[in-house]
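Summary for the steering committee. The consortium agreed at its last meeting that each partner would contribute one worked example illustrating the joint modelling workflow. Our contribution is presented below. We chose a case with several input lines so that the handling of multiple components could be demonstrated. No manual editing was applied between input and output; the record is shown as generated.
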Amino acid sequence: MNYSEKVIDHFTNPRNAGEIENANAVGEVGNAQCGDIMRMYMLINEDEVIEDIKFRTFGCASAIATSSVTTELIKGKTIEEALKLTNKTVVEALDGLPEIKIHCSVLAEQAIKEAIANYYSGKTLVH
Amino acid sequence: MKRIVYADNAATTAVSAHVFEAMEPYLRQNYGNPNSIYSIARTARNDIENARINIAKAFGADSKEIFFTSCGTESNNWAIFGAARVMAKKGKKHIITTNFEHHSVSHCVDYLSKNGFEVTYLPVDGDGLISPGQVEEAIRPDTALVTVMYANNEIGTILPISEIGEICRVKGVLLHTDAVQAAGSLRIDLSRQDIDLMSVSGHKIHAPKGIGLLYIRKGVQIENLMYGGNQERMKRPGTENTPSIIGLAAAVEKAVSDMEHKTSYVTSLRDRLIDGLVSRIPKVRINGSLEHRLCGNVNVSFEGIEGESILLGLDMAGICASSGSACTSGTLDPSHVLLAIGLSHEIAHGSLRLTLGQDNTEEDVEHILVTLPPIVERLRKLSPLWHE
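What follows is the complete predicted structure of the assembly.
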């Protein structure tokens, strides 16, 4: 697999890995059967700014790298801005992904949207 | 230079020095077409036939039963389609195989199942084995062929081929075995074993890629896969790959003469690696029977993490290995072998195969044992599936 240096960097030194205990927005996408699970934890303040974001991911190197780079792209953004994140932006931020790994960037986009949807519906993940 | 620990010997092996030396004269000196009349061609012809004799001797066969091919995949395709076509004319259109064969067998059989054949896929047990009784029960009057691998490429389990052969012989059914992983590691004696067709590949036993053979027992009829010249006694056309045939013979002879020594050495490395992994990493599962297992195979699953991430972490430390995760195959499903022995998708995605060979050392094993636990720990900390 030919990964860019950025992917290797984010896989080796993931940014914002872990959980946020008092998160008020949590989104999980993917499933273990397919080999990818991405879970995003966010702390959103009253101005609808995503103050903090962390992730836990089960998956291949590119799943971990896309999670990591996505948290960097989202941190400090408003909900409105975060909802505009596309998988294309994620791929560009990593200097590209191999064709068969593009779905990882789609998962990252979905995880953000899922977390925000759960924030509005007040849904929390129970594990 | 970064230290490289090659632990993927079931994928391919390095060409050994003596094989390389044996091959060299046939690349630049005795390069003549073995079917021509002049001296450099006659030398090539003679040496090919000597190679055939020596290979046959190593497997307890007759040289007239050895046919050179381009690889293990070709040998498997030829054996299965060649036998199926002959048997179909006799009205026999039932094939028995297992559910964890290499794709170069299973995809042939799958094709036949969609084209007029009926296939019985014998399920392997949790240890990755089948019993001879399963084969016996599955044989019918219209059974054309039994094709069962000698040893599995992913989990290294060794199947009871001799016993299956006895059953097939009594019932009058052809037996093909894919011995690509077994040859060179297990003592094969075709004068005592009731095997009708056997596939072998060169690059798994320190010969180059692009050479293999099919053993066809005297009297067994299979149709040709390809048509062309009269080579290989009119059964397999194409100008002989002289250097690689010479290399294959050198590799087979060496593997057979060193077998006891190599097996005990590699087994000790393997057991050291397995013991080390089990004692240093929690929630590890060894996949496949420990008793009936190839000397170099270690296949483990780590709960909560995915195989490709492990491979990339190992690669950064110079360790070459492979995994049964979907991400390494470009499909959505993890290895069919690991699913066949009953692993869940999640556990199968977290598998790692380390296959050791004669060139590995105790230092290599130690390097793996020092490198792997922190990788597993780091990935588990990232995983939402992992709970301390």
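The radius of gyration of chain A is 13 Å. Chain A has a mean pLDDT of 94.
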